[in-house]
Specification:
Length: about 450
């Protein structure tokens, strides 16, 4: 269907911090922990203003099957439960905790009992771990599948976005946790085939896991070309197994289960120690950052505190982003907190942040040639400008993964991925209106 490998672009790696073992940041004066750091229903606070909390203590419980509990990464006192704006534009309740600087651990912190699939899934649910590669889907919900459907479990260590190296550090610094996680997946999910997928620009990681895999049947290391977006779920599944995830289908429908390497390490840390997800390793980089590095930081830490820990800025930042330059979200200020899903914050100086001048499409077809899913971004843009949702539906804009290859490769600097996002909203509104009209028509009949 697709050929040997899916398409993409060769973006500069800029893995400047790959050799930087993470530094641990002291607890900030206060943290702001949102209840909406995952796909699904927001967590429900179980603490109130004035309560004293400790590290690892539950502060919000999951409010549904597709939800996730939230724990405190600092000890101190709950100052308030406020409403804040998230980077994507949504509003969320957030628990504000003033740190006492003690970092006292929750009483009774202990590993959960895990002996079979049921207790394993319960532990994953209690851990507060969600997809840490970006999307934030609750990991327990992802793992709750019919076991016979699983043809391959894929551990995503591709880390294809420029600048970001936090997953690389997980693979190198927490190899014991990650490897034990591989063995747990084989045992509890009865997975006959586990694939650890790593891009070829990480030779240290490849050598380490090839050595471990030699003595373990059913585990293979797939070395992949450094081609963005190699770590995209559908792309990774096809490039490692040849399995195709159909339109509107989930990976498990094709027989694949994908877990980010840092996600798996966080699950195992909870099972081994009882410490839930309360902190993240975050890559801090970009031309405006004084001391680029990887930092282990409590969830809820404000970006201003994180950048201060890294020495501030050596030049005025003109663009600050959550995530990498291809799929990251631009931020308006430094008051936003580190989320469970934050793997990098990038601050760019004027030279790197100046938006290119947009010109007319020259119909070169590069956007089509680079799209991993073989969409036609230039045609989608034209249909969107014409406000033609029927044509957008035919062009399959709804399967766009928003990787940004089209915008990156476009010589005319058209805002193609931005238009794709808007086009998906237009199509969704059109389809919702059609469904509503069809229901009304059915009621009248």
């Amino acid at each position: 269907m697709y050929g040997k490998r899916l398409r993409g672009v060769r973006a500069p790696h800029r893995k400047n911090t790959s050799g930087c073992a993470p530094a641990r940041m002291p607890a900030p004066a206060a943290v702001v922990i949102p209840m909406m750091m995952h796909i699904g229903a927001p967590a429900k606070p179980v603490v109130a203003a004035g309560d004293t909390v400790k590290v690892g203590q539950l502060i919000a419980e999951a409010s549904g099957f597709v939800s996730s509990p939230v724990y405190s990464g600092v000890s101190g006192k709950v100052k308030a439960i406020d409403s804040i704006l998230l980077p994507g534009g949504q509003t969320s309740a957030a628990i504000v905790i003033e740190s006492d600087g003690e970092q006292a651990l929750r009483d009774g912190l202990a590993p959960p009992p895990v002996s079979d699939l049921k207790s394993f899934l319960a532990a994953v649910r209690e851990s507060g771990v969600v997809g840490l590669g970006g999307a934030g889907f609750p990991t327990a919900a992802k793992l709750t599948v019919e076991l016979p459907k699983i043809k391959a479990v894929i551990i995503n260590g591709a880390e294809c976005e420029p600048y970001i190296t936090s997953d690389t550090r997980t693979m190198l610094d927490q190899s014991d946790l990650l490897w034990e996680g591989v063995l747990m997946l084989k045992k509890y999910l009865e997975a006959d085939r586990v694939i650890i997928a790593i891009e070829n620009n990480k030779p240290d990681c490849i050598a380490l896991y090839e050595g471990l895999a030699r003595a373990q049947d059913g585990v293979e290391i797939k070395t992949l070309p450094s081609l963005y977006p190699q770590g995209g779920e559908k792309v990774l599944i096809y490039n490692t197994t040849g399995l195709v995830v159909g339109e509107g289908k989930l990976p498990i429908d094709a027989g694949a289960l994908v877990l980010n390497c840092t996600t798996l390490a966080a699950v195992v840390r909870y099972i081994k120690t009882g410490m839930p997800l309360v902190e993240k390793c975050v890559t801090v980089d970009g031309s405006a950052v004084a001391n680029p590095q990887n930092v282990i930081v409590p969830v809820g830490t404000k970006l201003s505190d994180l950048f201060d820990f890294c020495g501030g800025f050596k030049s005025e930042p003109k663009k600050i982003m959550y995530g990498g330059p291809m799929m990251g979200l631009a931020l308006t200020d430094l008051s936003f907190p580190i989320l469970k899903t934050t793997n990098a914050v990038i601050a760019l100086g004027a030279k790197d942040a100046i938006p290119p001048k947009e010109t007319a499409c020259i119909k070169c077809g590069r956007c089509i040639a680079s799209c991993p899913l073989r969409l036609m971004p230039a045609n989608i843009e034209q249909a969107f400008r014409r406000k033609n949702p029927e044509e957008l539906e035919q062009l399959k804009v709804n399967i766009c993964m928003e990787c940004g290859c089209c915008s990156y490769i476009c010589p005319a600097k058209r805002p193609l991925v931005h238009v794709n996002k808007l086009a998906k909203i237009m199509l969704r509104d059109y389809q919702d209106k059609n469904k509503t009209a069809a229901k009304k028509e059915g009621t009248l009949k």
